[in-house]
């Protein structure tokens, strides 16, 4: 077919941030389907809660302190996360490096706390259906936490190499975005795991 | 925030004709050789592999169906043992649903969507390659297990308690559950790619109301996959955990509940039907417009119907569980919603009929299959409205009536449009036409064979023949209808053999197709057949819903993209206004390596929970290799 040039896009940028960029929508897509995974797991928990006369089954509710400490750290982590977002938009490499290191350390601290949380659930996965669903949900969220920490670490290292090119700042903002999802997903899980058994 | 590329970069506005084609093709070509083939991220190459693999699984699943029909052709037959029969119907259902129906639809989307929206590759092409490998490895895992007598035998739905360790102490259900994980990972990945491609990579000017109906259908399907499949992943994971580390999800003595399985399974399982059917409707709309020689009547009605069907499909799953003793209110609600979904499907059927009515239909093979689809699907829809009602469902539950119903819906709703689609897009994919004469034989044998095979099953069900029995006694009086059904199955199977012959013959010596053999209206026909690696030398601009019918001699295009590196044009979500010249990834071996690491992890973890520990580092290494910038032009901008 004959071609007629009707427009020239040579002046367009080669990367962008937020809804203009492709990876941002990819992140949204994965958040949607992973969020659905959490919703289904929550549904399974509530189903088992509804069909069992006693809840929790044969166990004390989880100890409150690890989950509560995590929740506080998650909420506070939004501040350095947002600061990383802003310096990435300004393409300030030194501060982006700092932000990524801080976020990686926060993630590692949360992983350690998560270990304590498993130890203080007061039930094993094979005790009862209650124990099974609690371990499943906490395990599911831990996978997300660990994935994001891994991603943050790799990105932090990357920003110290010659690959720290301008388009990588967009990757940093996507990483920031995903962390918000990890935080947001945790809040209902905290209520479900730590407070519903106390109802 | 923007960084305008330096001006010395060579752009496609500086070149023309052959010079431009050669240059862009050189950038987008997949490297040659075996290693190059393993590295390919071209959506057409991956899509073609996906299609061929899915059809190979159709062949295998179809052979199992033939074996079952041989066994049932007469009473008290000893051709198959009860155990073999259990494996056969489980493998047949699992193969057809997870390894054929869903993947083949996604495969067509992988091939066609970028061409139809006028871009050069899918979003996340490496994820696409990874998705294919996961699908292939998952399918091989299931079939190799079957070959060594570890084929699942608990039905394609693997109900507990039958599928629990206590009642099936073999690895068979684990094979089934992990095959699910493989195929769901593959399907979820493709869905995200489709959504982002349709949202962000449409040709400039392709506003929401100019998107081809097939693409709309695949977009809705992608969303259904994203929201339905997490449920089956939670289900299959919890089943494996119950069987491997003694969790108690489905153990009623420890607070677990077998019905939880059915809820999780059918919350996925019912949308699954629409994940298979909605792409079929997209194919129908595409074929119908071309052969009725006019745009499909009621474009907005069809899109709204697709979206409505998508939403409603999540509110019906309990109608698979009417005999489990539900509260009456629940049963009533799900009866109502099950009947409601007939409304958007019906609206689409009327739009298609109106298109035929008002058009000047050219009865070529693709259109024949579409008409076959309308007849068979409407019959399946009618028996669907019947089983939506609790009293009827209670009577016919687990009988051959239900087998007849869902084969009418699935084969009518998806396989007939699919075969029509093969005839329709084969020229684009291979550059050659399929034989029209063989095509007509193919259609009539399929249509007659299908109805002879499956219509008698309605009656068998009504006179009481249950599903999943490996044989029956002579005094039940089911033998004649079963023999008839087996005869029909043989004819139906033969029609697929004809299709295979047609494909092989036409690949060798079919008539050359040219760019647009059907005088169709959408963008995939604006490039050569088969399309070059870059799809289009320059990105098209869309000014009309049927761009090639507006003007089939010249194509408006944009210029200004790089001819030194792989670039695609990102456009805005609603108006498709150009926004970014985005780099597109080059071929890479890492998706394959990641898929191999993931396969080791998945298969290991049905044998030992420690696989989670030793299986993770190789996956992490492969993923880092995948995303680490390799110093190529794409990544250094």
What's the SSE blueprint?
The complex is a heterodimer of chains A (199) and B (637).
Chain A: E1 2-8, H1 22-51, H2 64-89, H3 93-119, H4 129-158, H5 166-195
Helix pairs in contact in A: 1-4, 1-5, 2-3, 2-5, 3-4, 4-5
Chain B: H1 17-28, H2 33-39, H3 43-72, H4 82-117, H5 125-147, H6 172-200, H7 213-244, H8 258-292, H9 299-312, H10 328-340, H11 342-358, H12 365-387, H13 390-396, H14 400-430, H15 436-462, H16 479-509, H17 547-550, E1 554-559, E2 567-571, E3 578-583, H18 590-604, H19 611-627, H20 633-636
Antiparallel strand pairs in B: 2-3
What's the short version?
Chain B: Residues 22-543 form the Cytochrome oxidase subunit I profile domain. Chain A is mainly alpha-helical and 199 residues long. Chain A has helices at residues 22-51, 64-89, 93-119, 129-158, 166-195; one strand spanning 2-8.
Describe the structure.
The complex is a heterodimer of chains A (199) and B (637). In chain A, 72% of the residues lie in helices and 4% in strands. By secondary structure, chain A is mainly α. The mean pLDDT of chain A is 95. With 637 residues, chain B is mainly α. Chain B has helices at 17-28, 33-39, 43-72, 82-117, 125-147, 172-200, 213-244, 258-292, 299-312, 328-340, 342-358, 365-387, 390-396, 400-430, 436-462, 479-509, 547-550, 590-604, 611-627, 633-636, and strands at residues 554-559, 567-571, 578-583. Chain B has a two-stranded antiparallel ribbon with strand order 2-3. At the A-B interface, β1, α1 and α4 of A face α6, α7, α8, β1 and β2 of B. Chain A: This is Heme/copper-type cytochrome/quinol oxidase, subunit 3. Chain A: Pfam families: COX3. Chain A: GO terms for molecular function: cytochrome-c oxidase activity. Chain A: Its main location: membrane.
Main beta sheet of chain B: 2 strands, antiparallel
Number of domains of chain A: 1
CA-based gyration radius of chain A: 21 Å
Going by helix content, strand content and strand pairing, the class of chain B is mainly alpha
Helicity level of chain A: over 70%
Beta-strand proportion of chain B: under 5%
**Estimated radius of gyration of chain B:** 25 Å
Q: Which homologous superfamily in CATH is the superfamily of chain A?
A: Cytochrome c oxidase, subunit III, four-helix bundle
Shape summary of chain A: elongated
Poorly predicted runs of 5 or more residues of chain B: 1-6
Oligomer category: heterodimer
Structural class of chain A: mainly alpha
- Largest interface pair: A-B, 58 and 78 residues
Q: What is the number of E strands of chain B?
A: 3
> Strand-residue fraction of chain A?
under 5%
The CATH architecture of chain A can be named as Up-down Bundle
Distance between the termini of chain B: 14 Å
Summarize the helix and strand pattern of chain A as letters.
EHHHHH
């Amino acid at each position: 077919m004959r071609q007629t040039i009707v427009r020239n896009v040579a002046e367009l940028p080669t990367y962008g941030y937020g809804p203009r960029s492709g990876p941002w929508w990819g992140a949204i897509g994965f958040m949607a389907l992973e969020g659905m995974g959490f919703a289904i797991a929550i549904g399974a928990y509530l189903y088992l809660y509804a069909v069992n006369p006693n809840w929790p089954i044969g166990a004390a509710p989880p100890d409150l302190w690890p989950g509560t400490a995590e929740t506080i750290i998650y909420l506070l982590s939004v501040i350095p996360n947002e600061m990383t977002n802003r310096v990435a938009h300004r393409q300030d490499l030194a501060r982006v490096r700092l932000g990524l290191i801080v976020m990686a350390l926060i993630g590692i601290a949360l992983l350690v706390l998560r270990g304590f949380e498993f130890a203080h659930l007061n039930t094993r996965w094979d005790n009862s259906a209650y124990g099974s669903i609690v371990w499943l949900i906490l395990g599911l969220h831990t996978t997300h936490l660990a994935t994001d920490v891994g991603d943050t670490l790799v990105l932090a290292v990357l920003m110290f190499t010659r690959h720290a090119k301008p388009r990588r700042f967009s990757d940093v903002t996507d990483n920031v975005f995903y962390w918000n999802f990890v935080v947001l997903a945790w809040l209902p899980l905290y209520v479900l795991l730590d407070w519903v058994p106390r109802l | 925030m923007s960084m305008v590329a330096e001006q010395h970069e060579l752009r496609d506005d500086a070149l023309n004709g052959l010079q431009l084609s050669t240059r862009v093709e050189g950038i987008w070509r997949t490297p040659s050789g075996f290693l190059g083939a393993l590295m390919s991220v071209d959506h057409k190459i991956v899509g073609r592999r996906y299609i061929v693999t899915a059809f190979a699984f159709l062949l295998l699943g179809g052979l199992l169906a033939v074996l079952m029909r041989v066994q049932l052709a007469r009473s008290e037959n000893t051709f198959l043992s009860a155990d073999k029969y259990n494996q056969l119907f489980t493998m047949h259902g699992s193969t057809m649903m997870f390894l054929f129906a869903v993947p083949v639809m996604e495969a067509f989307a992988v091939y066609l969507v970028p061409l139809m929206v006028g871009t050069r590759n899918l979003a996340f092409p490496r994820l696409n390659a990874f998705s294919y490998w996961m699908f292939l490895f998952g399918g091989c895992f299931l079939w190799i297990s079957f070959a060594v007598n570890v084929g699942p035998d608990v039905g394609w739905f693997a109900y507990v308690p039958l599928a629990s360790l206590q009642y099936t102490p073999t690895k068979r259900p684990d094979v089934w559950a992990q095959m699910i994980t493989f195929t769901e990972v593959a399907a979820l990945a493709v869905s995200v790619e489709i959504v982002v491609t349709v949202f962000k990579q449409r040709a400039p000017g392709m506003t929401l109301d100019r998107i081809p109906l097939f693409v709309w259908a695949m977009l809705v399907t992608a969303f259904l996959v994203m929201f339905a499949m997490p449920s089956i992943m939670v289900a299959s994971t919890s089943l494996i955990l119950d069987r491997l580390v003694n969790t108690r999800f489905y153990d009623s003595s420890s607070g677990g509940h077998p019905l939880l399985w059915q809820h999780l399974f059918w919350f996925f399982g019912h949308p699954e039907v629409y994940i298979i059917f909605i792409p079929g409707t997209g194919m129908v709309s595409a074929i119908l417009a071309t052969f009725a020689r006019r745009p499909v009547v009621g474009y907005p009605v069809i899109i709204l119907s697709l979206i409505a069907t998508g939403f409603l499909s999540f509110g019906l799953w309990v109608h698979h569980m009417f005999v489990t003793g539900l509260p009456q209110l629940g049963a009533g609600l799900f009866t109502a919603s099950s009947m409601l979904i007939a409304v958007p499907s019906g609206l689409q059927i009327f739009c298609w009929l109106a298109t035929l009515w008002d058009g000047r239909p050219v009865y070529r093979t693709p259109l024949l299959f579409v008409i076959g689809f309308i007849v068979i699907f409407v019959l399946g829809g009618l028996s669907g409205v019947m089983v939506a009602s609790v009293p009827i469902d209670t009577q016919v539950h687990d009988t051959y009536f239900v087998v007849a119903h869902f084969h009418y819906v699935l084969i009518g709703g998806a396989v007939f449009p699919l075969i029509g689609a093969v005839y329709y897009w084969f020229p684009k994919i291979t550059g050659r036409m399929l034989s029209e004469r063989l095509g007509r034989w193919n259609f009539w044998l399929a249509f007659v064979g299908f109805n002879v095979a499956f219509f008698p099953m309605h009656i068998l069900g009504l006179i009481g023949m249950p599903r999943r029995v490996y044989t029956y006694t002579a005094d039940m009086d089911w033998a004649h209808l079963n023999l008839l059904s087996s005869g029909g199955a043989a004819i139906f199977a033969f029609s697929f053999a004809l299709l295979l012959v047609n494909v092989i013959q036409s690949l060798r010596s079919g008539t050359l197709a040219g760019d647009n053999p059907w005088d169709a209206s959408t963008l995939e026909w604006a490039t050569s057949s088969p399309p070059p690696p870059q799809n289009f030398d320059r990105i098209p601009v869309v000014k009309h819903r049927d761009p090639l019918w507006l003007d089939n001699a010249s194509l408006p295009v944009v210029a200004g993209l790089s001819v030194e590196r792989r670039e695609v044009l990102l456009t805005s979500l609603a108006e498709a206004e150009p926004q970014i010249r985005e780099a597109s990834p080059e071929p890479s071996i890492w998706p394959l390596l990641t898929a191999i690491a993931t396969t080791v992890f998945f298969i290991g973890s049905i044998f030992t929970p420690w696989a989670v520990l030793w299986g993770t580092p190789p996956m992490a290494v492969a993923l880092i290799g995948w995303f680490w910038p390799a110093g190529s032009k794409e990544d250094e901008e």
